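Archive entry: two folds, one per protein. Generate the first.
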Amino acid sequence: MPGEDEQVEELKRRQLAQERAEREALEDADSAAEARTHERRADKARYLREKLAERERADRDAADDR
């Protein structure tokens, strides 16, 4: 479904942008606690982006099996 593919791509782009922003903020962190927060947020954004990619592959594989 083209609309869903576009939505997934947009979500992946947002998660990539979020990860990059958090990695930049990590470099500018003033404390260890702030750095850990930014690192966790960046890791979460990467994780979500990877899960979106997995879902996309699974949907594609399911469509191929039909």
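Generate the second and append.
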Amino acid sequence: MKTIRTFFAVLLFGSLLAGCAAASSESPATPFAESMKGYELYSWQDGNTWKFSLITGTNREKSLDEIKSADVVLSGVEALEAALQQMPAGQYITWSSRATLSFPPEDIRDQVEQACKDQGLILNVAS
């Protein structure tokens, strides 16, 4: 009887380990998953650098602290383009501005619009 219990305990433990191994061998998730409400893009100039925040869309207005939080800020258009390349195609992005935030010059806006188009993202600029 003790042998049977040991056998089942080892079998259960082995099954748990196999399940964990299968889960960890899957491809890693992309930093930007599909979002039912799309993404929100904000921009502002800091010295000579344009900064951007790309945040998961929600039904509520984001605070400036959330928008300018260090973990979501992208410095420069190249960093934004790299982030856009990691987003799944078909996602909606709403680019907004408000107090202390602004849109960059037209050449940078064109560059961002082209990056979105190349990635299959749907960009809406809310002016």
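Annotation attached to the second fold: Confidence is low (pLDDT under 50) at residues 6-30. The chain has four helices and five strands.
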